[in-house]
Amino acid sequence: MDLQENIREGLRSVNANLLRTILTALIVSIGITSLVGILTAVDGIEASVKDSLSELGVNTFDIYSKRNREGRSEGRLEKSAPPLKLKEVIRFIDNYKYPASVSVSTYVTSVAELKHGSKKSNPNVGVLGANDEYVALEGLNIEKGRNFSSIEIQYGSNVAIIGQDVVSAVYEENQEPVNSEISFLGSKYRVIGVLEEKGQIGGGGGPDNSVIVPLINASRLGADRDLRYSITVGINNPNEMELAMGEATGLMRKIRQDQLGDPNSFEIDKSESLADTMGEITGILRLAGFVIGFITLLGACIALMNIMMVSVTERTREVGVRKALGATPLRIRQQFIIEAIVVCLLGGVGGVILGVGIGNLFAMILGIDGFVMPWLWTGVGLGVCIVVGLISGYYPANKASRLDPIESLRFE
């Protein structure tokens, strides 16, 4: 018996015990599904974040209000820092001389209700104020209309740029939003632009369900509460990031009147830190996928070994006949190992198909567009199947190869 004959014999044996084969393959399939499914979903999330960062660009950094933890450091009560104020961020824009684009933004509310004619949205629309650099630095694109003009920014005109979810909520299908009028928070605004659809992890938020108004206008809307302003700086040369951040830190400390030796009364971070954080999260998710898949495949390995032991016992007489006809122990081992690998690969192929489908479905539920085909994890999954087949099939195969041909022929 050569290797090809062993493969054919293994396939015939699988076909002869089809129900048992299917049940065993299903156990393997569940393990591979959990492994490939989680890793596919993680790849989809990671790809979405990378796309967002590539649009935003890694040559940006943010300045925002410090998070006051109200705790103690080295036995001393930490001093709380007041949030950034409008006059401070405007002063920063006027005095920051490094070659860069600077955007300023603030959230007014996330529970606004918009009205247009007789239609109104759910009370979950975000309203934020920004300057004319905000759209570009946040990686957004205007599909219809235009951005804010310098006059509108300077005087805080009642104009607005809206997202796609807002358009769907308050406009008819063939109705043109640009130059129409909407109202929210007790004021009327003229729509001058519509953003391209961006998508949002988790759905129901982000730029698609937001209205952007001029910064001064937003400050008037939020006059009854303390708004928290944030600054995004996009520099022209990414290699000069540290220098640009150093100059921005010095200027903001001067504006905030931070004393020499005191910590910054604000936060400053590179956009790359988001990628680093996302890398850590996806790493944990991948590890969880491996652990869940390993535990399930360990159970599959034990179940397959048990079934192969039963198969060896059932086919003891067959082994005796093969040995009597000249089959060597090596060929007997090959036959049973190949049979175990075939069963695992059948389960593995089904698991990969299910895993890719479930992983992409999960990513779609999170609001991520596009189909992800993780070729690396597909290869890993099928490779794991072969390893599982070798491990679970070797001992039964070795036992079969050592059977005495005379005793085997007498077996009933």
TrEMBL record:
- Official protein name in the record: ABC transporter permease
Q: Any idea where the ABC3 transporter permease C-terminal domain is?
A: 291-405
**Domain of life of the source:** Bacteria
- InterPro entries named in the record: ABC3_permease_C (IPR003838), MacB_PCD (IPR025857), Macrolide_Exporter_MacB (IPR050250)
| Family of this protein | Belongs to the ABC-4 integral membrane protein family.
Subcellular location, in the record's words?
Cell membrane
The membrane topology noted for this protein in its Swiss-Prot or TrEMBL record is: Multi-pass membrane protein
* GO CC field: plasma membrane
Q: Which UniProt keywords apply?
A: Cell membrane, Membrane, Transmembrane, Transmembrane helix
Annotated MacB-like periplasmic core domain ranges read 21-248
Q: Which residues cross the membrane?
A: 21-42, 287-307, 340-368, 374-395
One Pfam match, given by its short name, reads MacB_PCD
Tell me what organism the protein belongs to: Fulvivirga sediminis
Task: Write out the GO MF terms.
Answer: transmembrane transporter activity
